[in-house]
Each structure stands twice: as C-alpha cells, then as structure tokens.
Amino acid sequence: MTVRDPATMAEVPADGATMGEIMFRGNICMKGYLKNEKATVESFAGGWFHTGDLAVLEPDRYVKIKDRSKDIIISGGENISSIEVEDALYRHPAVMACAVVARPDPKWGEAPLAFVELRPGAEVDAGTLVAHCKSLLAGYKVPREIRFEPIPKTSTGKIQKFQLRERARSAAAIDKE
Fold first, then answer.
1. Of 161, 135, 129, 131, which Cα lies nearest the Cα of 148?
2. Same domain for 38 and 120?
C-alpha cells in the first residue's frame, strides 16, 4: 500500500503535505470487476489498485486520509477538501449533521455548498456559520452557500453525497434560466 500521484504513478514524498491517491497491490486484491472490463482497466492503471481515496504520506510513513477524489472541490484552480470544510462546520455547537459538495460556479468553476441539519432546539443563520468557517478556514474554502434542509442518509446513517451533488447541479441549472 502506498500513496502515489495518479498521473505520474510516482510515490508522493513523505512530507505530510503532498496529496496523492491511496493505491495497493498484492494477493489481497481482487482480480477485477465482474463483467466490467472498462472499470477493471481504469481501477488497475499502472499495476496498482486505485482506491479513490486522497491522502498524504507522513514522514513516519503513516498515511493520513484527506478525502475521496470525487469529493474534492476545485474552485478557481484550488483544491478544497469537503472533509476539511465539514470539520469546520461540525465545530459549531448548533450543527448536528452537515455535508459539503461542489456546486457549479460561473466564475470559479465550482464552489463549496454546505447542507446543514441543526441540533434540536438550536438556531443559527447562514451568515453566522459562514463567519464561523472564516475563522477556521482560508477564504476560498468557506462555503458560498449554506442550505438548511434534511440530508439524505442510508439506513445505517451514512450520508448520500451523490444525492446532494444532484441537488446542487439541478439548482444551478434552474438559476441559469
């Protein structure tokens, strides 16, 4: 198991800062996807299984997972970890659950959009949460929009970000009309 740059397939330096993708190979790994040659070829590019998890390699060779590759928001050429933004939101005492996804942005390409569920009896407005995030994050990482609405979850409580991405895209299409 290692952390590699998916474009060059070179291992990232063990500096705790350079992000790459977690990859592994060996007899613990499957041979491929059943009846899906295209997915198999993509997932095993370069002879390593690509997990889709983005991480850094620490100087002691420990791996610190940062985000899923499909959850990274690219805004104005800067990579924003949805997990980092969610962590900032969870630090506010009124936030019970949150999820951050990319929404289309005409100027920046993508921008962070936060979906938030509040704790019972808690009250907070979007401006307060934005100010809270500004105190913890670089300005470009702060959500441009916060929506207070139910967050879709599986029966085991896992947040279904794919549904939130669809909501974000469909809202952006309506805004353009």
1. 129
2. no
